Amino acid sequence: MANFNIQYITSTGERATIASNASVFDFLEVNVGGLNIKNTGGRLDVGTVLIRSAAVPVSGSDLVNKAYADSLGADAATAGAGGGTLGVVTADTDRGLDIDGTGVIFAKVDGASLGYTGGGSLEVSDAGITEAKLATDAVTEAKIQSAAVTENKIAGNAVTENKIANNAVTNAKIAPNAVTRGSLADGAVGPDELDEDSVTSAHIVDDAVTGAKIADNAVATNHIADDAVTQDKLADNAVGTLQLADDAVTMSKIADDAVGSDQLADAAVQEIHLANDSVTASKIAASAVGAGLTGGGGTPLAVQAGEGIDIIGGAVSALFTRNYLNQNAGAITAGQIVRLTAGGVDLAVATDATLSATEIGVVADASIASGEVGAIIVRNGAFVSGYTGRTPGAKQYVSRATPGNITENYGAFVSGDMVYSVGRAVDATTVKYDPCFEFIKLY
User: Fold this and answer.
1) ∠ CA(41), CA(44), CA(45), 5° rounding?
2) Is 346:327 a contact under the CB 8 Å cutoff?
3) Could you give the CA distance from residue 103 to residue 82 in angstroms, rounded to a whole number?
4) Which residues contact 63 (CB under 8 A, 6 or more apart)?
């Protein structure tokens, strides 16, 4: 290059010269014929002025002139000439862009991650997006199909309490013996969580069922083991009449002197209940039998005759009779059946409709004249003799044919007759007096 000197005008208007042999020119801004050339942050800024006569670029950092750029555009136009269009072609194993023999530019794909549709559009291949291609938190709820998360997709211990919806864990979801003591939170299992009859004895630890856990009226007979209710389990006054079974209170259960007068029902103490010599003179009331018993203090007791008691030849016997007025028109004789009236007795007959509302008796005396008073058997248990032809064991009825008589056969009775049993025959001549009015339907 020829030597030359560079002259320049300073900012004060003076002319200065730079020798041609200078190796470095350090300017922040140079004005050449009205053109400002300046250094802006390490870049040459010539404004909108064209830089001409740039050489053809050789290396990657060389300046590109218009002619070179136009040649590249011409090459591209040539590749698409002849009516061809820019598009895509079938996949190739290489990557990047290429131009096929017809001048079509296409993208090379591997077919595994990228491919083409039937219409030639570029698309992601099936299974083309691998785990490495997904950013952290890229798969949101909206990206997951319904029922896509199967058992194999869930990591171990991934399902925590917060992940389980309320009431989601049903009986079918719980494996047998899976719920252990350590798996249950305090107070977690209430009545609604337990299936009916699901808790058996094996599931309950000893002493776990306290009084507070048992509902009112929950303990029935079948829940109590035999001999489980001991004396300590019974509250004071807990055993009342309803709790005692029939015949449960035996003699050994009754404390000494526990049975007083208030505890004994009327007529409860019978002969069989009395020990020998247990009824002393002080235990017998003066009016207990007939006119009462007298004596005592070790002396023999004397019995006085009275209601229901008779003394014949010094022997005490039951008195079955009372005295009544004979109101019959004629005399009545021993063994005849009479009915008791308001003022006395009259002969009984089954056809008398009033018989159903009256008591009957048997004449004890040999004969009682009309208008006279005589003995009539009126207490049950008397043995009346003097009859004939009686069938032992057969019931004897008031006759409908003859007033005062008895009969074993009521077959002749008709509707409206009174069927009144006098008693049963002991033998052919004796009847045990045990009267009973009977209702027998007659056809």
Assistant:
1) 95
2) yes
3) 9
4) 51, 54, 57
Instruction: Give the sign of the dihedral formed by CA 15, CA 19, CA 20, CA 23.
Output: negative
Residue with tokens 């011409």: 74
What predicted TM-score, i.e. pTM, was given to this entire model?
0.35
Residues in the chain: 443
Q: Which two tokens stand for residue 315?
A: 């022997």
Cα torsion 115, 121, 124, 126 to 10°: value is -70
Tens digits of residue pLDDT in 381-430: 899 999 999 999 999 999 999 999 999 988 888 888 899 999 999 999 99
C-alpha dihedral sign at 323, 328, 329, 330: negative
Average pLDDT score, the chain: 76
Q: How far apart are alpha carbons 46 and 30 in whole angstroms?
A: 10
Contact 367, 331 (CB under 8 A): yes
159: tokens are: 């399902």
| C-alpha torsion sign, points 20, 22, 24, 26 | negative
Give me the helices (H) in 14-172, please. 66-79
